[in-house]
Design goal:
The chain is an alpha/beta fold and about 240 residues long. The protein has a single domain, classed as TIM Barrel (Alpha-Beta Barrel). Helices cover about 35% and strands about 15% of the residues. It contains eight helices and eight strands; from the N terminus they run H-E-H-E-H-E-E-H-E-H-E-H-E-H-E-H. It has an eight-stranded parallel sheet. The longest helix has 18 residues. The two termini are about 25 Å apart.
Length: about 240
């Protein structure tokens, strides 16, 4: 299948899952995870209807920005962000989905202040408690959310999670359901920020339909759109 056909197929699956859950398909945004894709492939995806691209690596993102590859779409940073690379990301993306520590939060605030802008963010929750993954624990979430909501150059928009790899279809629904409850709790407790907390980013190529059924508003899909990832090569824009 072509890239355009894959995009249409994923959108149709999102719509069916949404309707099964009594939701409007328009509530869910497909984020194309463009890790290791070429600038030309990104342009083709946008031409085929992708409205949001998600990048994992700062170096790749910067090269694609220089190449104007994301023209016509919004850009999210969805990978682990080191504090020493914050200045390369803040103000260049529409949203940082992977904020996972007070230190990173403060670094983003400082850079956004310097640029005189407000940066949209999501807080990444390590919902499966995996030592190999970044993200705060569910227990740490209320405190970090309160810190984010108090910063003048940060707009807390919601939560993001990468659950454990599922062995069987449906295995991750319990984690997605837990994230939905955390999301509702944050919306309820963040009185001054409630109108801004509207994003729940969860679900990838293998489980995005279950994520939609459990309340995702953003799904980050790569392989189901682009096929198996090509190997990294040093001169790739």
């Amino acid at each position: 299948m072509s890239l355009a056909e894959n995009i249409q197929m994923v959108k149709e699956k999102i719509a069916r899952a949404a309707l099964e859950a009594g939701r409007a398909p328009e509530e869910i945004t497909l984020v194309a995870a463009t890790k290791v894709q070429s600038s030309q492939t990104i342009r083709e995806a946008i031409a085929a209807g992708i409205t949001v691209c998600g990048e994992n690596r700062v170096q790749e993102m910067t090269a694609h920005l220089d190449d104007d590859a994301y023209a016509g779409a919004r850009l999210h940073f969805i990978g682990h962000l080191q504090t020493n690379k914050v200045r390369q990301v803040v103000g260049r993306v529409d949203m940082i989905e992977s904020v996972d520590s007070p230190r990173l939060l403060q670094a983003i605030e400082a850079q956004a202040d310097k640029l005189r802008l407000v940066q949209d963010i999501l807080l990444e929750v390590n919902v499966g408690g995996e030592a190999s993954k970044s993200g705060i624990s569910p227990e740490e979430l209320p405190q970090l959310a309160a810190q984010a909501a108090a910063l003048p150059h940060i707009r807390l928009r919601g939560l993001m999670a990468i659950p454990p790899a599922a062995c069987n279809p449906g295995d991750n629904r319990k984690f997605f359901a837990q994230m939905r409850h955390l999301f509702v709790d944050i919306r309820t407790t963040m009185q001054d920020n409630r109108a801004c907390v509207d994003c729940l980013s969860m679900g990838m190529s293998g489980d995005f339909e279950d994520a939609v059924r459990e309340g995702a508003t953003l799904v980050r899909v790569g392989t189901a759109l682009f096929g198996p990832r090509p190997p990294m090569s040093p001169g790739r824009p």
